[in-house]
Design a protein that fits this description.
The complex is a heterodimer of chains A (228) and B (290). Helices cover 34% and strands 25% of the residues of chain A. By secondary structure, chain A is α/β, with parallel strands linked by helices. In chain A, the strands form 2 sheets. Chain A has a 6-stranded mixed beta sheet with strand order 6-7-8-3-9-10, with helices on both faces. Chain A has a 4-stranded antiparallel beta sheet with strand order 2-1-4-5, covered by helices on one side. In chain A, helix 3 packs across helix 4, helix 3 runs parallel beside helix 5 and helix 4 packs across helix 5. Chain B has a 4-stranded antiparallel beta sheet. Chain B starts with a helix and ends in a 5-residue tail after the last helix. Classes of the chains: A alpha/beta (228), B alpha+beta (290).
Chain lengths: 228, 290
Amino acid sequence: MILTKDLTKIYSNGVVALEQLSLSVEKGEFVFLVGPSGAGKTTFLNLIIRRELPTAGLLSVNQKNIASLKKDEIAFLRRSIGVIFQDYKLLPHKTVYENISFALEVIETGIKEIKQRVYSVLELVGLLNKSNVFPSELSGGEQQRVCLARAIVNRPLLLLADEPTGNLDPDTSWEIMELLREINKRGTTILMATHNKEIVDKLRKRVIALDHGKLIRDTLRGGYTIEA
Amino acid sequence: MKPRTFLYFFREAFRGLVRNSLMSLAAIGIITIALLLFGLFYLFTVNLQHLGDLAWDKIEIRVFLEQNVEQVEEIGTKLAALPGVKSIKFIPKQEGAAALEKLLGNKNLFTEEDNPLPHCFNLSLTEGANIDEISRLASKVPGVEEVVFGQAFVKFLKIAIRIGLIVGMVFLLLTVCAVLYIVINTIQLTVYARRKEIEIMKLVGATDAFVRWPFLLEGMVLGLGGAALALILLTEGYTILIRKLSAYHNFIPLLPRAQVNSPLIIFLFTMGICFGAIGSLFSIKRYLKV
């Protein structure tokens, strides 16, 4: 699903965000990406959705070298990847329903199918009764669930989550994690960047640890730290 | 793209305009002012040209014939056939004498036998005719004694019309550039306010074309709105000006409203819609790099 070889990203100001990162993530895996702030987690996610271009090395997603994608191919790549943003990135003037259907409108899905899929994911995230509400009227946890619903409504092969529990209380965080586990069980590969030690330690999934852009640990059923 | 997608674009464009109604109104206002400026220069230039044409129409060449010349009709035919001559009018010596007597207020100045004035032809010219050349050719027609026209005035008029037109065209071109610049900058503000929306659209997999369409339609509607307002203000203002001028200064013949309406509609709407579209495409370009 994801393959990197000596992947390096150096920003124009000279900051080395990723340095010779080599790893692979298989289809259906649930992977935690951990490390301190500035370790390169978000840069890695941004490279996967081609928000950034690698400086050197290879990054392939779905067997496609993302550095050589053309404009429209980038759009098609993104349709196969769902993204949960830490700051939700919801459109404030659109209702919950519209925010989610928006991801289907852009790929020209038929109106009946849009309706069916949106209500299906709303049911999954438990927000059926909030479909006509605007994001500003929702709590942080609810907004994160809308973001999650939008990320999965396309039935993506890969789901990237950047600190999806970063702004949430422990109970709400676990609700989101349960949803992610459920989505993973349905076959979606999940790559989740997080600082949440409790969640990582408890779920015992594969853990990839970065520090200063370098891969320092890759453990199956790992914890947040080596000692965990 | 599916037809339903275009409906979606129109719906999104409409929603965008309504949602950002203050911004949209401000944009329409600014585009109106810019197009008003263009319209004013346009009206000034076409009226200047119109005045020049009117003055040109008044120019006549007077061709005096030799005394006692007999082949008057033949001379008239030759003069009428000169290139650039629109029409000719024969003024017999008796009529010339009567006109002169009337002018001087002495009715018994000339007798039938003692009239020193020659027969004369007045030539009126077609638009853009070469008056010097016509005058030269007319003077060579046998039986012609002298050819007279207001050389100094014609020279002045030619230069004045040319300068007026050049200045008018330069200002028109400058205002077109200014309008384009203003429209692009105005629409850039409306797009800037929605850059996050564009980013999200791109991140969920929208193609550049998909993101562009609603903004393109919005830009066109803003341009159309600005053009419509500018047109109303210009035509109504022009009507009032014509009314006032005809009441106080009857001698300034401005072009009638019906004659300036069509070009104004074409120019303003074309500029408004095209520049609105160009402004949108130009403004959105940088935000598509996500």
